[in-house]
Amino acid sequence: MSETDQDSTPMIQVNQVWKQYDDNIVLERLNKTVDEGEFVTLVGASGCGKSTFLNMLLGTEQPSKGEILLDGKPIPNEAGSDRGIVFQQYSVFPHMTVLENVMATCGFQRPGITGYLFGSGRSAAREAAESILEQVGLSQALKKYPHELSGGMRQRLALAQALLGKPRILLLDESFGALDPGIRSDMHDLVLNLWSEHKLTVFMVTHDLKEGFYLGTRLWVFDKLRHDPQAPQRYGAVITYDLPVGHMDQTTYQQIDDHLRPIPAQAG
Amino acid sequence: MKKFINQHPGRAFKLLLGIAPFVLLILLYVMGSDARLEVNPNDKLLPSMSQIADGLERMAFEPSKRSGEYLFWQDTASSLTRLGLGILIAAMLGLLIGLVTGALPMIAASLSPLLTVVSLIPPLAILPILFIVFGLGELSKVVLIALGITPFIARDIQRRTQEIPFEQLVKAQSLGANTSQIMIRVLLPQIMPKLFDAVRLSLGAGWLFLIAAEAVAATDGLGYRIFLVRRYMAMDVILPYVAWITILAFLIDVTLRKLTNKLFPWYVQGGKS
After folding, report:
1. Contact A91/B167, CB-based, under 8 Å?
2. What local confidence, expressed as pLDDT, does residue A250 receive?
3. Strands A201-205 and A39-44: what pairing?
4. CATH class of the domain at B73-222
5. Which residues of A touch B182 (CB under 8 A)?
6. Do A111 and B178 count as a contact with CB atoms less than 8 A apart?
7. pTM for the predicted model, two decimal places
8. Domain ABC transporter spans what residues (chain A) (predicted)?
9. Is B184 at the interface with chain A, CB within 8 A?
């Protein structure tokens, strides 16, 4: 964003990234830079590769060609504590209570064989966990197991867990896709608050274009520009729109919306 | 009238339906036994209920004329010790091998093929080897049980470990966890209830190996006794022994199930969340 120094390298650089599985090209020719503190929303039709892109940031998948740089260095090829993640499901540990789930983060943060905490480390972790759970509104459920929580509470827990790890980048992979609309908008407010409070850089994948329009600072639309009906796997998706959020007129919205969710052709 | 597939018995009726086959079997037995004893009072094949009670009384509540011990209880204690030791060793070995091969692809690459081959060896076929190597004492029987069910438990635990969602492993790493922390804090606790399940499933095989080993070489034990008195066609001892083994197996199974529910409250309704 404009606040950052012009001469400093951007936090994330995506250079000529391609991703393909065998002959199936998923993404092609991606070139982007993202500065620290941005909130990027990734939208696109299902199967267009937006989650694949997120996984490349996460480190669980690697580009087939090109490179993604974090602070000028190639992004590590495994998940690490500088990049937090909230998945749509399976994001919390089912065998730990809410409090234990978050305290586990503190155990994982220090070197050690078991990841269990004792003594003063444990009570410090407890304090930190309770305060972050307060922030996400889970103070009433400390002793509950994840299966006793609603979907929204579970995602709050996953967020709290990720935030206590003090990541620089937070990745949200359709984290709120399975929630009811009302609860989803609560979660959006929560994420926006946490984003500004913890000074995070956020990448959020969603299939809901509206989400992208009022969340964050930047919207990326993934879509296939070229299409060969004989060989649909021949071309991958590119980022067709890169828009600052809040500066979008209705026509552009409609244009993108039509493109992502084509309505069956009608006359006129 | 509902379709048969949609009909459910009520509480009391369900109990009745459950008990009925047992009552029926006992009734059939008593009728058969009466019919045979009427023809030949010395018939040994189907002893009457009172003869069975006498046999049990002789074994369980009167000291043996030869050794002065209560044979029934001594047999029970010996057999349960062997079974318990064998299962315990198998559970610990199986957990270790299963967890390590399930979590670490590098280790799995070297151990999985071996495990598959070993699990195909019929344990009873190597019983003679065990007797030769470990002697006729307690050790060879325990080793047979352990050897017989370790591969099963190990492979089951391996599969269960691999079934834990990949997302959880990634999540733990994104929180800063290293390999051993993931194994000890994320995988191991989630595998423990599965281990209890695996042990419950392998108990049947455990009993099989126990009784086979006792039948071949032992000086006491439930299996030993059954095969010993077979020589005198002492059905009045064999039948209560078989019933007792069944009851023991049932009790162990129930205990393990209750223990699982108590130790792992999150597992019972266990979502994977």
Report:
1. yes
2. 66
3. parallel
4. mainly alpha
5. 115
6. yes
7. 0.86
8. 12-249
9. yes
A interface residues, B as partner, C-beta within 8 Å: 58, 60, 78-81, 83-85, 87, 89-96, 104-105, 107-109, 111-116, 145-147, 149, 154, 158, 161-162, 164-165, 167
- Indicate the fold that domain A1-82+167-259 takes in CATH: Rossmann fold (3.40.50)
List Cα–Cα distances, A41 to A79, B104, B112, B211, in angstroms: 21, 35, 43, 65
Cα atoms in the 13 Å half-sphere on the side-chain side of B1: 2
pLDDT per residue as tens digits for the range B131-180: 999 988 889 999 999 999 999 999 999 999 999 999 999 999 999 999 99
Cβ neighbours of A155 in B, within 8 Å: none
Distance in angstroms (rounded) separating the CA atoms of residues B75 and B211: 12
**Cβ pair A115:B270 closer than 8 A:** no
Going from N- to C-terminal start, the domains of chain B cover 73-222
Asked if ipTM goes beyond 0.95, one says no
The 10s digit of each residue's pLDDT in A228-252 is: 778 777 788 888 878 787 656 667 7
Closest Cβ–Cβ partner in B174, B178, B270 for A162: B174
A160-197 confidence digits (pLDDT tens):
999 898 899 999 998 888 888 888 888 888 888 888 88
Residue A20 forms beta bridges with which residues? A25
CATH 3.40.50.300-classified regions of chain A: 1-82+167-259
Say whether A108 and B271 touch across the interface (CB within 8 A).
no
Q: For residue A107, which residues of chain B lie inside 8 Å, CB to CB? A: 181, 185
What DSSP string runs through A93-162? -TTS-HHHHHHHHHHHHS--SS----HHHHHHHHHHHHHHHHHTT-GGGTT--GGGS-HHHHHHHHHHHH
Is B181 an 8 Å CB contact of chain A?
A: yes
Nearest chain B residue to A96 by CA: give it: B266
B105 reaches A (C-beta below 8 A): no
Query: CA A246 to CA A239: how far, in whole Å?
Result: 19
